[in-house]
Amino acid sequence: MKYLDFSRLKVLRVTVIAILLFCGSYAFLFIRESLSQFTDGMILDSKETAAYGFYAAKLAYAENDMLGSLARIFSNRSTVENVVVTGTAESVPVLLYHGLVDIPDGENITKTNFEAQMFALKQAGWKTISVEDFNSFVKGEKTLPNKSFLLTFDDGAKSSYYPVDPILRALDYNAVTFIISGHSLTDSDRKSSYYLNANELRAMKRSGRWEIQAHADSGHVFQSISINGEQGHYYTNKLWLKELGRLETDDEYEQRIGHDISLVKEKIERVLDIASVSFAFPYGDFAQNITNYPEAQRVLLNSVKDNYDLAFFQTYPSAGFTQNYFDDNTFLVKRIDVGGAWTDADLLRVLNAGRSKEIPLHIYDFSLNEEWIKEWGNIGLKNSSLVLRAGEKTTGAAVVLDGTRNWENYHLKALIDWTRGESLSLVARYKDSKNFTSCNVSGRFIRIDESINGERKKIAETSIDQNFSWDNATFELSVHKNTIKCFIDGEELLSVDSLDSSLDRGGIGFKVWDPVENNSEVIVNQLIVEKLL
Amino acid sequence: MAKIFNKIKKRLAVFSDFGFWFLFFVVLYLILLFKISTTSFVGGVTFFKFYSILIFIYIISRFFLAYFHRSIKHDEGYQPSITFVVPAKNEEDNVAETIRRFLHADYPKEKIEIIAINDGSTDSTYAEMLKIKKEIGQEIPVTVVNWKVNRGKRAGMAEGVRRANHEIVIFIDSDSFIAPDCVKHLVKYFSNPRVGAVSGHTDVFNRDTNLLTQMQATRYFIAFSVYKAAESVFGNVTCCPGCCSAYRREYLLEFIDVWLNQRFLGSECTFGDDRSLTNFIIRKYEAVYSPEAKAHTVVPDTLGKYIKQQQRWKKSWIRETLIASAFMWRKNFFAALSYYSYVILALSAPIVFIRAVIWHPYLTGSIPLAYLAGLFLMLLLHGIYYRTQVGPRAWFLSVMTFWFYTVMLMWQLPWAMITIRDSRWGTR
Predict the structure, then answer these.
(1) Which residues share a beta bridge with B147?
(2) More confident residue, A45 or A390
(3) Which of B34, B35, B37, B360 to mutate to test the interface with A (most CBs of A within 10 A)?
(4) For residue range A267-288, what is the model confidence (pLDDT) as tens digits?
(5) Which residues of A touch B (CB under 8 A)?
(6) B55: closest CA among B403, B344, B333, B412?
């Protein structure tokens, strides 16, 4: 070490500088949080403005293309059909996203995909609406332009705002974010790096592009719901009280969820000064599937209804149509949970499938559309025919055709091969899985049922004398006002004119059933729907 | 009036110097904050966090050690005899001037001899050598060795060592020029018998030719005054470059034949002779750096030449690093620690670069701003240091170019690994 010079001056200088740098770094750790608001703001502002500029330029370019296609209006009308939107919407889809991710994780959507989806929607003529307009629409108070949709984000993650906002700004879209106030509007000084904080939410509010609504306060969690430590959703289960060695009582459950549901509303109104009018169920769960308390759904819905005008959930197979209808008069709103792997084309296909279909409708090739919503069992394609088959553990299968919810008077004719199963149904005037009517063939009987709010009853029945071959058979049904008729191979077999007035409109579907599991199948080869005047 | 003006100017110069030092520490502070903020979310991969922290510590420790590096005093009583060895091939432009500078060396003439080796030049290098021998031969003995066929620089250097009659052998590249006091500052370190090699401080001669040479000037200066100085603290300079370095002949003779016939992965080693020679020395002895022993060298002034030169250096670096890794652990703990840290950093750099600049942006579509800004800050730190040491020069521009070349030439190390067995020089 003879080449080292530890003179006092050098050591002193280095020591002083080292102390200064150390203190500086240490101080930085302390002020980082408050500093980061300032610098993050600056960095994000510039980043966002740059992103906005990029998207705006991209849109201008795309619109130029649209102008180009407008110019072709005389030569090819169909190219602009998608762009010029006229008329009013019969149904409005609600899209659900969470945070955007950089790297595909299978669950969440990537920024690139999201951007492509929004641009595709914009170019197809879709426009966003506000929660208020949406509420008026489903309550039947206000009509909306065709191709309106509501864009929503759950959880209030930073990644559902920062990458999204420039796109909304460029496309002139707006969105709703459902926040978890326990994370976003917490009183603690510790700022989350994942969830949006009050400052960010205020900035979102000011932008005019964002509505901030309720998701949960602390209810977006799983907790112990049995003595074995089984985990369940906070809102839809009675929790296991470990110290007391029992489940919550009815009252305790009701109070706990009631408190959380009103607390998030109270926080949003107090901290952000925003009217909190809608609520999204965490995990889309309102006890429609699993719960350890049979009354959970009633209690939960009542509690949400007491506080909010609308409650959002993610639509699931047996929930029927994917979109929300004018005069649905519901407070439960269906959302389409946009899958992590969906491309822009996938999203457009799903949205278009849910839009009202025109009658007459002729389907000869079922592979050309994917608009059949599976309610039950398995559905598939075989040689361009639609195949309904019971699953390994189900006794039957059922489908409905999306976008038929507003059909009124029609005649439905299906060419089918019924290969297995005890009963076969043609479904009509289908509003949801609890409200519909149907023609059923079962053994030597043909029967007309109606289901009103889940209560199913037989309104007509007769026995069949002939022996029909169900190989390439024709099964028909017609509904006109409150008259419903059933036909097999062109022969009217049954008719009734006492259909409940609540089933004034509704879509079509098929169902096949057998008491034995995995033993029913029907193949639909052709479908023809004609209007009845 | 002018006097007062000059006085004020001088005063201001102090402040300007101070200003740059202040800037230096501001940049250091920024880097520190940058590291604190980024290491918390580099994507969570431990390897990259480790890299980020290690490179920071490594670079800061270089500046720290360089600052405490002390050179020893020149002792008039210790004046060993010296032999200049100048191997040259096709250097008709510079070789005469290179040798002429020896005459002006501030050293007793009777203790100097010169051996110039013409290594199969196809131009008039040999004639130039004879001419300069005629010019200065009366004052200093000059031996000119003429090889008709090119045998390589290594053979030339070895020939010089064998023919030398004096204690200290000083290698001077045929395109390098020594300052008058270079010699005495080189040899003074040999008073310590542990010292086997001394590296001089070489700056770029054609600094103002273009941006490329300006950038290399910054690079040379930093490489010597910071990195070699830091290594020198432990007597562990890993490369005493051919452009201006002195070796103790007695120690060289121990392994000169082994060195001459060095083979790596089956092929002859035709470049990185200086690094290889130093490597043999530091196995047993010490190699140090003398900041006062100044020389200038001509550097490549076109991108093509520069890339080829860098490619040769990178190859020899890989080869000699592998060799040195085998014994370096026996040296001083801190010396070994710095050495292995550097090896890890140099080998990981292309991986980190590819992830940050290609892989990550490809996946996410984002611009690698954080990485490029971090890299820029690091180079800025070096640039400001350069400015504080050498005064007003095109330092900022050269930082920018340095930054640009670092990014552009990142592929060189992996490429050198792939082509390491190809021992051709390419045109220089």
Answers:
(1) B119
(2) A390
(3) B37
(4) 999 988 999 999 999 998 988 8
(5) 1-6, 10, 14, 17, 20-21, 24-25, 28-29, 32, 102-103, 111-112
(6) B344
Q: Specify the residue for token string 């489940």.
A: A247
Strand locations in A338-392 (E): 361-363, 372-376, 378-382, 385-389
- Cross-chain Cβ contact B363/A102 below 8 Å: yes
Cα distances (Å, whole numbers) of residue B159 to A510, B140, B163, B165, B282: 98, 19, 6, 12, 21
The answer to whether the Cβ–Cβ distance between B67 and A14 falls below 8 Å is yes
Q: pLDDT tens digit string along B23-42?
A: 888 888 888 888 877 765 54
Query: Among all chains, which residue has been given the structure tokens 């710095």?
Result: B338
pLDDT tens figures, B290-310: 999 999 999 998 988 888 888
ipTM over 0.85: no
The whole-angstrom separation of Cα A37 and Cα A43 is: 10
The verdict on whether omega for the bond into residue A360 sits within 30 degrees of 0, i.e. cis, is yes
Q: Chain A contacts of B232, Cβ < 8 Å?
A: 3
Chain B residues within 8 A of A28 when measuring between CB atoms: 33, 36
Q: Which of A415-429, B157-171, B199-213, B269-283 has the lowest mean pLDDT?
A: B269-283
Contact B83, B142 (CB under 8 A): no
Inter-chain residue contact A111 with B365, CB threshold 8 Å: yes
Instruction: Kindly list the residues from chain B whose CB atom is less than 8 angstroms away from the CB atom of residue A114.
Output: none
* Per-residue pLDDT tens over the stretch A227-268: 888 899 999 999 999 888 898 999 999 999 999 999 999 999
CA B174, CA B117: separation in Å to the nearest integer? 10
pTM, two decimal places:
0.55
A146, A223, A162: which is closest to A194 by C-alpha? A162
Mutation site for B-interface testing, chosen from A3, A15, A112 by largest number of B Cβ within 10 Å: A3
- Do the Cβ atoms of A218 and A179 come closer than 8 Å? no
User: Measured between beta carbons, which residues in chain B are less than 8 angstroms from residue A103?
Assistant: 363-364
Q: How far apart are CA A8 and CA B198, in angstroms?
A: 28
Distance CA B358, CA B368 (A): 8
Query: Which of B32, B36, B233 lies nearest to residue A4, judging by beta carbons?
Result: B233
List Cβ neighbours of A339 (8 Å cut-off, separation of 6 or more). A109, A346
Predicted pLDDT at A73: 39
- Here the tokens at position A112 are 């690139």
Asked if residue A431 lies in contact with residue A405, where contact means CB atoms within 8 angstroms, the answer is: yes
Q: Give Dmax (Cα) for chain B.
A: 72
Question: Per residue in B54-76, pLDDT tens?
Answer: 888 999 999 999 988 888 888 87
Considering CB atoms only, which of A5, A28, A103 is closest to B68? A5
Of A25, A32, A102, the CB nearest to B364: A102
**A379 neighbors A367 (Cβ within 8 angstroms):** no
